[in-house]
Amino acid sequence: VAVFGSPGTATFTTCGAGPVRGMIALGDTAYAVSGQFLYSISSLGTAAVVGAGIGGSANVSMAENGIQVGIVNGTSGWTYTVSTATFAQITDADFNAASTITSIDSYFAFDWAGTNKWFLSDLLDGQSYDPILFASAESSSDFVIAVRNVYGNAGLFGERTTEFWQDTGAIDFPFQRINGATIKRGIAGALAICEDDNSYFFLGDDRIFYRLAGSSLQRVSTHAIEKEWERYTTVSDAFCFSVPYGGHKFIHITFPTMQKTWVFDISNPLFHERTSWDATGAEVRWRINCALKMFNKVLLGDNSSGKIGYVDTSVYTEFGDPIITELISPIIDGKGLVGFMPEFQIDLEGGVGIATGQGSDPQIMMSYSDDGGHTWSSERWRTMGAIGRYGIRVRWTELGSFHQRIIKVRISDPVKRVILGARAPGLYFSEE
Questions:
Q1: What is the separation of C-alpha 39 from the centre of its chain, rounded to a whole number of angstroms?
Q2: Which residues pair with 309 in a beta bridge?
Q3: Residues whose CB is less than 8 angstroms from the CB of residue 363 and which lie 6 or more positions away in sequence, other chains included
Q4: Higher pLDDT pick, 176 / 246
Q5: Cβ(319)–Cβ(22) under 8 Å?
Q6: Which is it for strands 3-4 and 307-312: parallel, antiparallel or unpaired?
Q7: pLDDT, tens digit, 9 for 90 and up, residues 100-135
């Protein structure tokens, strides 16, 4: 397959010191929680503080009911009423600690943390709660972890099961469980779910990634990815969001404790890892916390600052910081024979250099490992071609012998990256 480098992130606006913990749109305005503040953001990128006091630093859950933005952080809740520009913490005695908020038929709906219950706000009023507007999950006794609006119904994602409720308009409690619609699969974390392509994607309690389309549950992760996730000591803080670009829709799942981000391409069902680099130069999970399609852009909230950026295919950095593309080959195994590699070639789009500065003579680096990836050779650099050198050939010679070999190539210059193929002409195996 051809491999294309990820698009860059350009800055749209800055909302305080960050991190950006969540975003949502209501009308023609975007709203973002950055640090402990709520910001409104206009189409021109003008950001203004409209609320303060949102505790914590981890991602929040946000929803809107048409007139209010609701926010929960796992213990407390807040609302912002647009018409009166009023921001307030929810202090009603019948509000309960919740990790998720969603909007269904003009109600805000919440999980009731640490129980098998869920509850509702009053109609169009996220500040008011009736003590009878709650219900318990019925198909199983496991705790409700997340509540989501799923195709207009309330989806109750539990520790081991998921069930769906529809609005029947009943007086005591307006929702009723849909018989026969329970799924024997729970969710790994409250925010480990997102929506795109008319489907819902979530990390199951069995650490398998699923696509929920209608009532059909489809496994989309691979055994290799699942084996990786089995090593993680913490997955309950995982969160998901979708980023579309180039006609593709990419589901991102981040594990903050493990400092890992994995990306699933819906249209070309493959996973890849997305990384960033912190101020010390250490490789960490992708720095983006959340995404929002707004203002004809895909807005991206930064975990390392209060910056809100947007996907820009004409830049090759993240807020000015480097993006490193890395590709690692499968094992080349002689199966007991000695391999000899006189040459290695990469087919790529050449002549991608920029006018001045880093990237004017862009480089691609190759190294190899003959011990299963434990140690690597020194990197050998080759040019990808300055502007206009479209016919550049990228090749490395005199690569010696091996029993097993893995090849790694990297690109860090801020230029376009398109890898079309690779080959090792003259590769042969022989008895020692």
A1: 22
A2: 11, 300
A3: 381, 382, 383, 384, 411, 413
A4: 176
A5: no
A6: unpaired
A7: 999 999 999 999 999 999 999 999 999 999 999 999
